């Protein structure tokens, strides 16, 4: 039996979610996929968590995506597709999380590993690794790749989804897909932790509204996104934190956020 394919730890307002399946290139088994859904639900519910980091055990691969060996076993033994065994196969719970998620990509990523990266708000990658959406090479699908149109030029995304080839991460970084590239896995995680600490120190209501506004604009377009952004920020402007921020600035001290 596999033990703890997903590990979650919380420190200083930062939750770290670890995919711990290095022996299978951090591929997503049924247990791992369901564990991720549990993790995002926990992070969404915990008031002490402001931001999350998604990373994985070091093995040269951040995540290989779907566990194809387990998929073949389930199809052979039970006659069903592996996705039917996952309670959130397209990771909608992760995408719906209101709190920022940072991908600390300590290796190459492909297929469902790319899906996880797309669902993150910030991405830190490892130099010398590769990225791809390999579904066309194995007869699967990538309906979850649609948000990549807001992150990559359309011809580049078409090349990725139509060929299934892996691209050097440096090429995608040049298009703005990643925020930072680092030299080692430890430096990737260190950079992600630094970003997380900076987010965790900010006004929590403002952070949640900022993420929601950007996501709303992706969904609704510019005009609709602007109107939705105003609505989302009503709670921010009416909060005690909106008073505390300017007061702390005037008094030359660090603000004490209340999240209300």
Explain the overall architecture.
The chain is of the alpha/beta class. It folds into 2 domains: 6-201, Alpha-Beta Complex (2-enoyl-CoA Hydratase, Chain A, domain 1); 204-251, no CATH class. The chain contains 11 helices and 10 strands. The protein has helices spanning 30-45, 68-78, 92-96, 112-118, 154-163, 169-174, 185-200, 204-220, 222-232, 234-237, 241-250; strands at residues 6-11, 14-19, 51-56, 61-63, 101-104, 108-110, 122-126, 130-132, 167-168, 180-182. The strands form 2 sheets. The chain has a 6-stranded mixed sheet, sandwiched between helices. The protein is globular. The N and C termini lie far apart (44 Å). 37% of the residues are buried.
Mean pLDDT: 93
Could you give the count of β-strands?
A: 10
Q: What is the architecture of the largest domain at the second tier of CATH?
A: Alpha-Beta Complex
Strand proportion, as a percent range, falls in 15-25%
Strand order of the largest sheet: 1-2-3-5-7-10
Global outline:
globular
Relevant CATH superfamily of the largest domain: 2-enoyl-CoA Hydratase, Chain A, domain 1
| Overall tally of domains | 2
For the sheet with most strands, the description reads: 6 strands, mixed
What gyration radius follows from the Cα positions, in whole Å? Answer: 19 Å
Query: What kind of assembly state do the chains in view correspond to?
Result: single chain
Per the CATH scheme, the topology name of the largest domain is 2-enoyl-CoA Hydratase, Chain A, domain 1
CATH top level of the largest domain? Alpha Beta
- SSE order, one letter for each helix or strand: EEHEEHHEEHEEHEHEHHHHH
The level of helicity is 40-55%
SS content category: alpha/beta
């Amino acid at each position: 039996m596999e033990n703890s394919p997903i590990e979650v730890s919380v420190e200083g307002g930062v939750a770290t979610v670890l995919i711990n399946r290095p022996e299978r290139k951090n591929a997503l088994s049924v247990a791992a996929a369901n564990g991720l859904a549990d993790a995002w639900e926990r992070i969404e519910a915990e008031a002490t968590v402001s931001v999350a980091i998604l990373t994985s055990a070091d093995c040269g691969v951040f995540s290989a995506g779907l566990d194809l060996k387990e998929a073949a076993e389930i199809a052979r033994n039970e006659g069903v597709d592996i996705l039917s065994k996952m309670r959130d196969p397209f990771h909608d719970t992760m995408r719906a999380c209101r709190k920022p998620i940072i991908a600390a990509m300590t290796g190459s990523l492909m297929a469902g590993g790319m899906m996880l990266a797309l669902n993150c708000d910030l991405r830190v990658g490892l130099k010398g690794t590769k990225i791809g959406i390999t579904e066309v090479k194995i007869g699967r699908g990538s309906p979850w790749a649609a948000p990549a149109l807001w992150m990559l030029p359309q011809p580049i995304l078409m090349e990725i989804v139509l060929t299934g080839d892996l691209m050097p991460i440096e090429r995608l970084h040049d298009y703005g897909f990643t925020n930072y590239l680092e030299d080692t896995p430890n430096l990737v995680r260190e950079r992600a932790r630094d970003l997380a600490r900076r987010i965790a120190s900010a006004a929590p209501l403002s952070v949640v509204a900022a993420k929601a506004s950007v996501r709303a604009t992706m969904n609704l377009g510019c005009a609709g996104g602007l109107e939705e952004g105003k609505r989302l920020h009503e709670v921010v402007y009416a909060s005690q934190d909106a008073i505390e921020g300017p007061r702390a600035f005037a008094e030359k001290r660090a603000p004490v956020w209340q999240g209300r």
